[in-house]
Amino acid sequence: MEALNQKSIERVVSQRALQMGNSFSCQICVVGFLSGVCLTSLLLAALTSFGTFHFGPILFSSLSMDNNSTSHNNINMVTGFNCNVKLKETKRLLDLKSTRERDSDERVSSLYSVWSAVLNESRNGDNWDLWSSLPNAPHLENCKLKTQLYRNFDTRIGNETFPLWTSWKGFLQTLPVVPNEHIQNPKQDEAVSEGAYPPWIVGSDEDNYPLTRKVQRDIWIHQHPLNCNDLNVKFLVADWERLPGFGIGAQIASMSGLLGIAVNEGRVLVANHYNRADHDGCKGSSRSSWSCYFFLETSLECRQRAFELMKSEDALSKGVVTTKENYTTKRIWNGPTPRKWGRPWIYLQPTTYINGSLLISHRKMDRRWWRAQAVRYFMRFPTEYTCNLMNEARHAAFGKLAAKMALQSLDADWSKESSDRPRSEIDEYVWSNHKPWVPRPLLSMHVRMGDKAGEMKVVEFEEYMQLADQIRSRFPNLNSIWLSTEMQQVIVKTREYSHWNFYYTKVGRQARANMSMADYEGRLGRETSTNYPLVNFLMAADSDFFVGALGSTWSFLIDGMRNTGGKVTSGYLSVNKDRFW
User: Model pTM?
Assistant: First the structure.
């Protein structure tokens, strides 16, 4: 009977193991269960016999009471349980799991490679239709279609005051609608457009700097007069700063000052030559122009009119058109903030965290508020070129994670699915308005060192990570960091923080701290030294949290972009403060 029971146990264990073998989640349990059965049987045998027995090469000894016959029977019973069979079964299950994991990794790599090839094709031509036969790539967006939507949002139709700014979001405005007694097409309702705000502002009013929606609308109207040829329309024409020591942050800060002057003087700002766009990636008229990366600050009609006036000595002498040379450096950088909206900066919420406490106020709150409004306006809509850069950056960093998610959501082999899948209306008009996927929550960190020591207090990477850990202690589901830095030593130090997932652009970095930023950018080349910082900037603006150094103009502007992009209540953790506060 005892032998029969033993065989029954063996049969049940074996059958159960085979049933569980197909479930990855149970395989570890199987290993532990089978090992436990074997060890338990051996211990029972030892306790029963008080004898000596062999288990592999290990000899266990205990008290001998001349029970050799009993010991032999018990050993046979243990051997009869056949632990070797169970160990082989366990090994088979582990091998099966390994094979399936390997197959899964191959499928992920295959999908990632296909996405990469199609992404490259899409950038080089209008081949986005190729995506219809593939699983959805949640981290990518149709740049050509998105840019066309932005163009609609930035173009006035006829003599209307505003473009098609309605309460219908994004691509819903392109949905064919036949008005009836129950619904009025918002695209035909002037009253709705009059009361609408710019679609590039997201989040509630509390999640943005005070009056952000109104200010952005008013700046757009100011920069887009109904008739650029009106004799009352005046202009300010200026090139972007091009001195070697000026980084992108300094260029944007300087142009923000010029926009403030233009608003104060009732002029339309026309930004002309942008040296950082003077490379082969910027094609046609966008070369050497801000329009390579973002939509222009004013209409083409106003630009043409301003350039015509620049040729007129009379217009220049009468001040119909002015240039940067008409204003002092001090006025451009430290001039009065526009007061047409009152003093909204006195209502800034204290969400900046420095040296263990919230920053309540400082001497340059007006400048901080205005630069935030200016940088948001200048970067309100990325171009197709910038959209493609962001697609490539997200694909390089998150593409394999996205492929794994996509495959897990499919019941069948994606390669065998029909290439003629119809796209649903909700996908085309509603879900298409969602931002591309990134692993969230995501913390962006800008670590500035190098030659910045002459302008601000430079701290080591460890201090930045202390702030990151502080955020994580409050939000334990946070484990991903998008890291931007010019120093290779920072990248190396990330290996010491294995509990974080770090993502960053793959570019050459400085090996020594005393290299100037101008020399570093010269080594990278104009195209790379412009593209990758802008990618980092936009990733930081969209991240859930940010750790930086407000003493850096770049971090200062990221802060402004976030505070006009619905991120005020996410807070800003800085390792230092601006040197002028």
Answer: 0.81
